[in-house]
Amino acid sequence: MAAARHRIKGFTLIELIVVIAIIGILAAILVPAMMGYIETARVSKMNANARSIYSGAQLAITDMTNVGKFAESDCIYTGSDDCIGHAANGGPDCDLTNYLGEKFGGYFAFKTNVGGDCCLYALWSDKPITVSMVTGKLSNDDVRQSLGTANPIGCHPLKNTDDDD
Q1: Taking CA atoms, which of 2, 95, 120, 139 is between 20 and 30 Å from 32?
Q2: pTM of the predicted model, to two decimals?
Q3: Residues 6 or more apart from 141 whose CB is under 8 A from it?
Q4: Cβ of 7: how many Cβ atoms within 10 Å?
């Protein structure tokens, strides 16, 4: 009686190599695309936080103006997690607590011009913002480029890049 051969079922080495190669190709395509999505999400988050600061500052300044506590113009305010905007020129603080909520985090700055717009633009970052950093509106490309620096920063409203021509 001849011994019966039992064949072990499984994948061959060639099949495994082909599968690994396909996974490697897919990873090479997907990883850069995912990194782009992550960067876009960070830019959107930073600009959305700046938009919250902008709206909160508009409301706070309007309230302060209505009760006669706010008469500053062309002033830069900076603040952090405490939601208090401190005037660079020593004027009255601008309390954004009621407008940003208890879970607000990060650093912010905004520039006012009460004679015209209540709040010209606002900046937000997860790192401290100094008065010297408040130079003007940023474009979306400026925000994207700031991600690679030591102090990434978001802006609202954004500078229209068509105005650069």
Answers
A1: 139
A2: 0.74
A3: 161
A4: 5
